[in-house]
Amino acid sequence: MLVLGIETSCDETSIALVEDNGSILAEGVASQGETHAPYAGVVPELASRQHLSHLGPLLERALQDAGLRLGDIGLVAVTKGPGLAGCLIAGVSFAKGLAYGLGVPILGVNHLEAHLCCCCLAGKVEYPAVALLVSGGHTLLVRVRGVGRYELLGETRDDAVGEAYDKVASMFGLPFPGGPAIEDAARGCGPCGAAARLPRPLIGSGDWSFSFSGLKTAVLYRLKKREGVPFREGEVSALAREFQNAVVEVVVKKTIDATERVGARCVMLAGGVAQNEALRSELKKNADARGMRLLCAPKRYCTDNGVMVAMLAARKFADGERDDWSLDIDPGLRLA
Fold this sequence. Notes:
Elements: E1 2-7, E2 12-19, E3 24-31, H1 33-36, H2 44-66, E4 73-81, H3 85-102, E5 106-110, H4 111-117, E6 129-134, E7 139-146, E8 149-155, H5 161-172, H6 178-187, H7 213-224, H8 235-261, E9 266-270, H9 277-289, E10 293-296, H10 306-318
Parallel strand pairs: 1-4, 4-5, 6-9, 9-10
Antiparallel strand pairs: 1-2, 2-3, 6-7, 7-8
């Protein structure tokens, strides 16, 4: 069966055609980075309109690339939440109209669960596992007992990791999105580069909660102390690296600690921030040292994509899950 996956939860429009055996036949993503860059963040109304203009052309191109027709689609899958309401409406409305016109079933999926599904592309998950999901809107640790069986261990009390990256990048005058910009700046810090140490929020709290608002504020106060003095060469890179080191140290320690304490031997890493090489390498080093297996979603499938939606829907459809025409969005949908 051919599954069409549709993803429009935030600022990336994505379409994918995936067979129910996991074969990816075609995919396409339309990013809105340039649209939202002047605002240093996603403007929901603009994002919703962009989705409406991108969905049709992306589907047409995907069908052409795969050498298929609309009539070959056997299941329409779409993200129903969590996400920005207007963006989710754009995707779900498009999916419902298409499924109704083709006379095929429709299935709405959880965006967060779909991200975790991409870890399966790196290898077979050994249950129970602990998953770290880090993105622009979410930071959470979850015990995974199987597909659809999740237990929340901890989450952020304020900013998500990706949100903190975006805000700190804006403070430095770096471009949006902030994740890649901070990572690039940190990479440019030479061996002699140094910055005063930033706090590691909640690192010794004894639980698996996160907080990044204070870290962001610490960077802001550091900049205010300069009183308008321009950065010298290498200073932005040094502070960017210290900020990144603080984030990575906290999330890695809590992830490894959670995995040990719940008796799991498999760690999953997914979400847009999972592209960060410093996070991936540090988590792998710590997992290897304790005999744990790390499954990272492939970098190209860390950000929002239609492949993850189609893959998850195929598994759920095979297990008997169905939606009808009352399918609605749920912007606050939780994983557990």
